[in-house]
Write a structure and sequence with these properties.
The chain has one helix and three strands, in the order E-E-E-H. The chain is α+β, with helices and mostly antiparallel strands.
Length: 74
Amino acid sequence: MLAAPPQRVSVGREKHMEIVARLAADEATLVDPFSGEFETRLLLIRFRDGSWLRVETEELRSELHMHVLRQPLS
């Protein structure tokens, strides 16, 4: 998980990003809140306790979205 103001994680600024946490697969799940119905930049990192973080990608249907859409629905 990366955390920074948007201008610090924009294209070309990768060297300024900092990893602030590593999550085990059983701690959180990457979710498309629209289940692929709409093209969107929005994803959620949903934690076991029901809390979540909103993630916005730079492109519609990013590689992260495609990964989520390949996973079975739970």
